[in-house]
Design a protein that fits this description.
With 456 residues, the chain is of the alpha/beta class. The chain is 27% helix and 29% strand. The strands form seven sheets. It has a five-stranded parallel β-sheet with strand order 3-2-1-7-18. Strands 9-16-10-11-12 form a five-stranded parallel β-sheet. Strand 21 and strand 22 form a beta hairpin. The radius of gyration is 23 Å and the shape is globular. The protein binds flavin-adenine dinucleotide. Flavin-adenine dinucleotide binds next to helix 1, strand 2, helix 2, strand 4 and helix 8. The site of flavin-adenine dinucleotide has 32 residues, from helix 1, strand 2, helix 2, strand 4 and helix 8.
Length: 456
């Protein structure tokens, strides 16, 4: 009897489980095996800061699927604590290390999806191995930080890195009553976002008593009895009981490289619009893979959960025989920093400059609701606009209300390649509790249009 066709998926979080689910849904006759080296699958790492802050109490609510449910309801075989250590693409086999039984075995595949994700960057610095220096990526990382914070009640935390994870974690740790210091190498938090937005975020950090040290580089860590006690920087040292390293993510590609899979943007796995790699029958999706930026038309590495889920689904559809396309991203992201919603889509001015674009920026302050309706909040909107054509290249927003969903309108505008004139004509919904007649999106577009007409 012929062997059942088999899909093997390496990695069982966002991209991996999405790929496994869509392939199995479309081809129920296909055997689908997910190999995951960790003990857990299918969870929302994005919720970890809120689990650590205790806004989310029960870790179980972070899981979308358990191995049992995946098997019973979706017919997906999940093997946790199984690490794929090599791919033999000539024989179409993966070499799997069973981490519990310390055994190695080979498994044939017809199709292989690499969903190996990314790992937090841990800089090679003196003292990096001291206890209570954490990174945050997996559910295990989240549980370790929460257990330490609850059981040993540390008083001070130093967060290395002022990106969105560093910012979300500064709020989480402040909520737990820790004194928080953020060390950031650049001249602003949130890296590539523009100062019109980051100045407001930095003001909020100060109001929430988060100590921020910019243009400061960490040089090492000092400890006592194996436990971290100080962070050493080029601008002095900081006493601490907990260090969180949040300096970025790199794609996990060692396995792929061993199989001759080519790498692309920022060392992530190179894929085409069908999520195929250069090796026949091998697909890649999620934080291990690159994607196309629809504004610059260049390959980029923007590791986000939203993309991982979509790429995973498309990879699974193509495994099942469709010709589905993942077109790319426009660089949208949103984060909550204390009471602030901070969002971006497309290019920031810093990025547009890096791309050599001819552009101007336009910033306005609008209001989240009708001025007459109580409890509205200011929203700052910045547009990055191509000179001459008036094409919208990007938008950023910050405010205490109504930012997160407004940015989606602008993400759609970017996807459609709209000019600021097009945006100014959009038929946006209005009622006093939700917006003003002239929504901040429209006010910003009109302001940008005026600048464009004045030859900005
Ligand atoms: C604190 C935090 C907050 C975040 N917030 C947001 C947010 O608000 N919005 C957003 O869009 N994104 C957010 N993200 C990013 C999002 O979580 C990731 O983009 C997403 O988890 C990527 O999914 P993935 O499946 O590609 O990779 P991963 O989640 O990294 O999963 C890959 C899995 O592959 C396994 N694996 C790797 N190699 C092997 C191997 N050789 N054999 C077997 N298994 C292997 C790993 O153990 C891992 O479990 C956040 C991330 C963090 C850490």
């Amino acid at each position: 009897m012929a062997r059942q066709e088999r899909l093997v998926v390496v990695g069982g979080v966002a991209a991996g489980m999405s790929a496994a689910s869509s392939a199995r849904r479309l081809r129920p006759e296909m055997e689908v095996v997910v190999l995951e080296r960790d003990a857990y699958i299918s969870y929302g790492a994005c919720s970890l800061p809120y689990y650590i802050s205790d806004d989310i109490k029960d870790v179980k609510s972070l899981f979308a699927l358990t191995p049992d449910v995946a098997e019973k309801e979706r017919g997906i075989q999940v093997r946790t604590r199984h690490e794929v250590v090599a791919i033999d693409n000539a024989r179409k086999e993966v070499v799997v290390h069973d981490l519990e039984r310390e055994k190695e075995a080979r498994l044939l595949y017809d199709k292989l999806v690499l969903a190996t994700g990314g790992s937090p960057i841990a800089p090679v610095l003196p003292g990096i191995d001291l206890q209570h220096i954490f990174t945050i990526r997996t559910i295990g990382d989240g549980m370790a930080i929460k257990t330490y914070a609850s059981e040993e009640r540390p008083k001070r935390a130093v967060i290395v890195g002022g990106g969105y994870i560093g910012m979300e974690m500064s709020e989480a740790l402040r909520k737990r009553g820790l004194e928080v210091t953020v060390i950031e190498k650049m001249d602003r938090v949130l890296g590539t976002m523009d100062t019109e937005i980051t100045d407001i975020v930095e003001g909020k950090l100060a109001a929430e008593e988060v100590e921020l040290h910019k243009e400061t580089s960490v040089e090492g860590f000092e400890g006592d009895k194996g436990v971290v006690r100080r962070v050493i920087t080029d601008r002095g040292s900081f006493d601490t009981d907990l260090v969180l390293l949040a300096v970025g993510v790199r794609p996990n590609t060692k396995l792929a490289q061993g199989a001759g899979v080519e790498l692309g943007a920022r060392g992530a796995i190179a894929v085409d619009e069908h999520l195929r790699t250069n090796v026949p029958e091998i697909f890649a999706a999620g934080d291990c893979a690159e994607t196309l930026h629809l504004v610059t038309c260049k390959k980029v590495y923007i590791p986000l959960g939203t993309t991982a889920n979509k790429q995973g689904r498309i990879a699974g559809e193509n495994v099942a025989g469709l010709e589905s396309v993942f077109e790319g991203v426009v660089g949208s992201a949103v984060t909550k920093i204390f009471a602030l919603e901070v969002a971006r889509t497309g290019l920031t001015a810093v990025e547009a400059k890096g791309e050599g674009c001819e552009f101007f920026t336009s910033t306005i302050e609008g209001w989240s609701r009708s001025r007459a309706y109580p409890a509205g909040k200011p929203i700052t909107v910045t547009y990055v606009v191509e000179k001459g054509s008036g094409r919208l290249l990007g938008a950023q927003m910050v405010g205490e209300e109504g930012v997160a969903h407004r940015i989606d309108t602008l993400a759609a505008a970017l996807y459609a390649g709209m000019t600021v004139e097009d945006v100014a004509r959009l038929d946006l919904a209005y009622a006093p509790p939700f917006a003003s007649v002239w929504d901040p999106i429209l006010i910003a577009a009109n302001m940008a249009l005026k600048k464009l007409k004045n030859g900005s």
